[in-house]
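Re-running Gag protein to confirm reproducibility after the cluster update. Everything else is unchanged from the original entry.
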Amino acid sequence: MVWVTPLPPGLKMAGIFGGDTLRSLAAATPAEQVERIETVDTYERGLIAHVQELHAPVDPVDEMKPAQSKPLRLKVNAYEGKEGENLLFWVRDVELTMDAALISTERLRVAFAVSNLGGRAKAWAYTREATTPDCEALLSEPAFRPTNYEYRQRSRFLACKQGKRELHEYIQEMRVLAASLVGNPLPEHIKVTVFMDGLKVGPSRTQLFCVHANTMEDAIQIALQEEYSHKQARTLMSMRQGRNSSTVAMQGAPAAGASIGPVPMELGTAVQSSIRCYGCGKLGHMQ
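Result of re-run:
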């Protein structure tokens, strides 16, 4: 180990500030010397504190914690298995809610699904909870559905008609009924045929019979596009007719002070007020 002999205060200050600075400090008044020394001391203390802060060990508690996802609380309407309730949409709603609430374990997922059942569906679920620990298997059981649920939904889909409704209302019902047949879906060509047959007579139906749609969604897009084009054409036609009517009215309007009456378009029907009759010699007519 090497021992370093401490320098005298005078030599130490000369090494830090330099000889010229030290001589100017010695020539200064006592008040100026105190002020300069305090300034240097303040600077030195700040520099030491900054160096110590940079080399200080980092506390693990003070480190940036990773962002954690917070669960989102949502509400699901209870499913009781009554007529008109859509089981497929309820199952999808339950799955989305469980994902948003960060429910990951199967036991908690089953408990959450059962808690959103009602009526005979909930009573059936309590009897199956002990033997069906899997949430997906529990929700796929058809026991709490209405009687002949698939048959009823399929019959409603095949008999669906547009009638006096708007096109978007008819499309929405067809999509809901088609989604309810996910367990035993119909072929796409049957869906297209049913959709085309249910449309009322109009431009959309005519266009669909002129083109070939592979899926029901393709047929829906064609029908919507044709209806939009037809509405745009009717709007432009109405604007042109209104503009033409206004132009004709302005051109046919009599001037201020002019007599209102039929405007002669032929020379034979014109009032010849300046022509003299050769028979009687009067103005306004000819013999």
